[in-house]
Amino acid sequence: MPSILQCIDCAQQYPIDRVIYTCAACGSLLDVAHDLSAGGGVTRSLFDDRLGALSPPYNSGVWRFKELVYPGIEDSAIVSRMEGNTNLYEQPRLAAFAGVDTLFLKHEGENPTGSFKDRGMTTGVTQANVLGMTRVACASTGNTSASMAAYAAYAGLQGIIFLQNRQIALGKLAQGVAFGATCLQVNADFDRNMELVQIVSEQLGIYLLNSVNPFRLEGQKSIIFEALQQLRWRVPDWVVVPGGNLGNSSAFGKALREMFEVGLIDRLPRLAIVQAEGANPLYRHFAGGFKRFEPVKAETIATAIKIGNPVNLRKAIRTLEWTGGVVEEVSDQQIMDAKAIIDGVGIGCEPASACSLAGARKLVENSVIRPGDSVLAVLTGHIMKDPEATIGYHTGELPGISPRLRNRIQQVDDDLQAIVRLLN
Q1: Assuming Cys at both sites, which of 42, 106, 160, 357 could form a disulfide with 137, CB separation 3.0 to 4.6 Å?
Q2: Strand 374-379 and strand 238-242: pairing?
Q3: CATH number at residue 280
Q4: CA dist., res. 145 & res. 73, Å (int)
Q5: Residue 303's closest CA among 147, 165, 108, 403?
Q6: Which stretches of the chain score pLDDT less than 50?
Q7: Cβ-proximal residues to 225 (8 Å cutoff; 6+ apart), any chain
Q8: Class of residue 106 by CB neighbours under 10 A (exposed 0-12, middle 13-18, buried 19+)
Q9: Sequence-ordered list of residues with C-beta below 8 angstroms from that of 157, at least 6 positions apart, any chain
Q10: Is residue 163 part of a domain?
Q11: How many domains does the chain have?
């Protein structure tokens, strides 16, 4: 099944080994397009038989679906850290909070560096390896940089990170530093850093690993492949996902279309993309009937999705069109309350992840999602990615946010009777 790069708008095609991120003819985004016309032997049993594999590449929750991710690649070229294979949780208290009977949480914070980015980075760094690149770069709010730095170091490449100069969670910044990447903290927000890294990468011949790179999204498709495999290939009514740079939203649409095309599923779920109120350009565009897109100056406690001008906008809109999807927004208060609920049942997540639960709840309240619908929600990052936000919520120190589900840290003297009285 040969693959090519193809423009999503004008259908111009390019060889898969060309270093190119947007169409040279019209400037639009590119897909990695696979020839799935004959099915290529892609069946449920093919992927099910690989479950529990102990050896690479099929011990990875990305490369288990190799025929739909990067068919034909030599196993020796793959850069993998056994990413994926993340848990799918069904927790009645969370379903009750959302207001639905059936809620599944796919926890991508259980990947090697603590976020879903590892799924896209294994394919992105693999392609860098195939192309013979020696340096890779990204702009990041934190999770992308942590993942890229780890996979670059693992592959023997030099990682270069463009970071904004404030609101970088230490749990994420520490990873980029620890994994040996060159960290440039630029006096600019994410959107400007994204512009800068694209210019610098082109001028210096550095391979760009933000999600404008179509190989990144090929890996992120496997979130949906794996979740539906865990559901025994039963399609939920809704898939709910946080929206920042819109890479996951874009990848999910492509994954679902390809699964339908090869017969792995017989229908598509509806997709709901949830943004923070302070970083909601897609929500505004959706509410305005997609007539005119306007970037925003992003500001939210959910730093992983604090993006005002998402590069994957067109692909995300395509996903909404394919799935009859919707876009919702939630406040920072709703995000942190939902996070406290997720944390409180022992699962835990970073703030941006909680958009999924908060958004599902709001969509139920607005009668978009029905109580009897089955919902698959994606948690994108680990609770330890942003411990400052967690502690700040429970100590009541987050500006503008009330700790409605506060778990106070109890202060007590070194006095046995006082401790007993407190615990009674």
Answers
A1: 160
A2: parallel
A3: 3.40.50.1100
A4: 25
A5: 165
A6: 1
A7: 47, 65, 68, 255, 259
A8: buried
A9: 125, 128, 129, 133, 134, 135, 136
A10: no
A11: 1
CA dist., res. 213 & res. 206, Å (int): 13
User: Which residue from 129, 124, 132 is spatially nearest to 219, judged by alpha carbons?
Assistant: 124
Q: Is residue 137 part of a domain?
A: no
Q: What is the pLDDT of residues 48-83, one digit of tens each?
A: 999 999 999 999 999 999 999 999 899 999 999 999
Residue 190 pLDDT: 85
List the structure tokens of 127. Answer: 């392609």
> Given this model, what pLDDT does residue 140 score?
86
Torsional class of 393: left (φ above 0), alpha (ψ -120 to 50), beta (otherwise): alpha
Return the pLDDT at 36. 86
Q: What's the domain range around 244?
A: 88-114+216-394
> In this structure, are residues 389 and 336 in contact, taking their beta carbons and an 8 Å threshold?
yes
Position 1 scores a pLDDT of: 46
Judge whether 161 lies within some domain.
Answer: no
Cβ contact 336:351 at 8 Å: yes
The reply to whether 33 falls in a domain is: no
